[in-house]
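note to self — DONT lose this again. spent like an hour looking for the file last time. sequence + predicted structure for the chain T wanted, 183 res
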Amino acid sequence: MHKYLILFFSVTLFWCSCKSDTVPGDIIQPKTMAGLLTEIHLIDGRLANTSQVPDTIYKYGMGNYLAAFERFHTDSAAFRKSMNYYSTEPEKISAIYDDVDNRIKALSDSINLIQAKERKAIMKADSIKAVHVADSLKKAQQKPAAIRKADSLKKVQETKAQQRVDSLKKLKKQKRSNALPKK
C-alpha cells in the first residue's frame, strides 16, 4: 500500500509540474493580447484627458473600444475570458505586459523624436527670422542712398577745397623764398 501511495503522489506531482505553456485555442494569443492591451491602454489614456462629463466614457469610449476589438478580430466577451485566463497565469500576463510596456515606450520615443525635430525646425526658422530682423535694423539705421550720395559729394568738395587752400599756401611759401631779399 505504501508503494501505491508513493506512486500516486509522484504521478500527481508530475502532472502538476508539467503545466502546458500553450494557450488554449479559445483564448487570445499572447502577441495579439499584447497589441489589444496596448490599444486599450492608449484609449484609456485619451479618455482620461477628456472632460469627465457624465457618460463620457460611454459616449466616446465605447466606439473606440469596439473599433479596437474589431481591429484585432475579437469581441469584449473573448477579451474578458482571455483576461480571466491570463490572470491565473502570472508568468504569461507578466510577459504580455512587458511587451505592452515596450510598445508604449516605442510609441512615446517616436513621438518625442518627431516633437524634437519640430522644435529644431522652429528654432532654425526663428534664428533665420532673427538674422533678417537684424539686417533690417542695420539697413534702417543706415542713411538713405540719396543722403549718402550727397554726403559723399560734400566730402569730395570739401577735400578739393582743402587741397586748393593747401596748394595756395605752398605757392605763397615758394614765392617768398624765391623773392629777393629786402635791403
